[in-house]
Amino acid sequence: MTLFWIASIILVVFSCVLIALPVMRQKANNDEALRDELNKAFYKDRLTELEEEAEEGLVENQQDLIDDLKQSLLDDIPADSKNSQENAISPMAVMIPSMLLVVGLSYGMYYKFGAQQDVLQWQEVTSNLPALSKKLMSPEGAQLSDDEMRDLTLALRTRLHYEPEDSTGWLLLGRIALANRDVDTAIGSMKKAYNLEPESNDIMLGYAQALMLSQDDVDQENARRILGNLVQKDYVDLRVFSLLAFDAFERQDFPAAVRYWSIMQQMIGPEDSRYEMLSRSIENAKKQMGQQVGSGQSVSVTINIADDVTADPNAALIVSVHTADGSPMPVAAARYPVGSLPRTVVLDDGNSMIAERKLSSLESLMVRARIDSDGNVATKEGDWFGESEAVTMGEPVEVMIDKRY
């Protein structure tokens, strides 16, 4: 805003200079002075002629002729000459009111038609960006009103105009566009954030979400590639598997959809209110596959940890279902981050190791759970583990991790 006022003052001063220059350069009217000089020259010439004529004896009343010449000279001076000089307008009397008129008109027209209120509102919104961003990122961020969302978008665009390398700003703008179903803006903003920080998990997820909304097959394929990279990086976020599941369902890849929704169930546990909704989605996908959905097709496993066991929350928790005789080869298995224990996970046919041998085909089973500390499933030395008793399919299973390889 300071720059605007400086620029406006410079323009107004320049306009005033344009008005002042012609007035200051205006030359006085020299008609009267030229007339007086001409009369004087004529008078002197006539006096010289009278003297010559008097010397030659041609003139007898020289003084009378001189008096007549003087009188004719006086008669040639206009009566209003003195008044016109007295009434001459000073240049300052013209210049100062003109300048005041320019200043008054300039700022008066801006006040009337210059959208001053919009500019002031824009400045207020821009200064309020931190508060709006904090409110959006908070758990109750969805409660932002439409006006607040518009204000936040305007403030973000202003900031990104001056700070185009702000990846967080582009990510936030993309999320707002996603909320407003503005696909083009969402993809464009997320792409800029992704180009600035291609290894950021949050940005990768946001970019994949935007690409999934595109009708372009290439965009959707790129989204699957990004989501696959997130899964390989063990990025634990329900939205990753949710996007993969719905995408698989839309492509009629129902087994993949079941697998992803089953993983989501395992991540949230049966006590979560979303668990039943995911169960209905799984049943719908299985019906699409022509499968009969019955009871006893999933195994619920509650995992506890002994008091003397210390587990890194970032380590991997590997849960495997085996035949009741404890065969080393698992029938089904799943991998989770350890997180906080105790916790409950659910395995079903989507976790089966071999397509020809489903988990639901078992009549009895036992479960093993292991904390993989080095990220290599093949190595077990130093890992903590536990195993359950043999149970009948459909019964809940409990595993206590209290042993070490």
From TrEMBL:
It comes from the Bacteria. Residues 119-275 form the Cytochrome c-type biogenesis protein H TPR domain. TPR repeats lie at residues 167-200. Pfam families: Ig_CycH, TPR_CcmH_CycH. PROSITE patterns: TPR. Keywords: Coiled coil, Cytochrome c-type biogenesis, Lyase, Membrane, Repeat, TPR repeat, Transmembrane, Transmembrane helix. It is found in: Cell envelope. Residues 33-60 form a coiled coil. Residues 299-402 form the Cytochrome c-type biogenesis protein H Ig-like domain. GO terms for molecular function: lyase activity. InterPro entries: C-type_cytochrome_biogenesis, Cyt_c_biogenesis_CcmI, Ig_CycH, TPR-like_helical_dom_sf, TPR_CcmH_CycH, TPR_rpt. The chain crosses the membrane at residues 6-24, 92-111. This is Cytochrome C heme lyase. It comes from Vibrio variabilis. The lineage of its organism: Bacteria, Pseudomonadati, Pseudomonadota, Gammaproteobacteria, Vibrionales.
